[in-house]
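Extended Data, panel c. Modelled sequence:
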Amino acid sequence: MIGFREIQGYGFGLYPFPNFLQKPLERIDPYHCHQMVFVARK
């Protein structure tokens, strides 16, 4: 993305897995998460 020096993306929300399994699965396969958060710094 033009104009930003640092961009990070985080995935979360792997449904229909129970809450206790979501965190480990998000780390293993973040591309199949249902929601993404991007943090960008100028």
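The longest strand covers residues 6-12. This feature is highlighted in the accompanying rendering.
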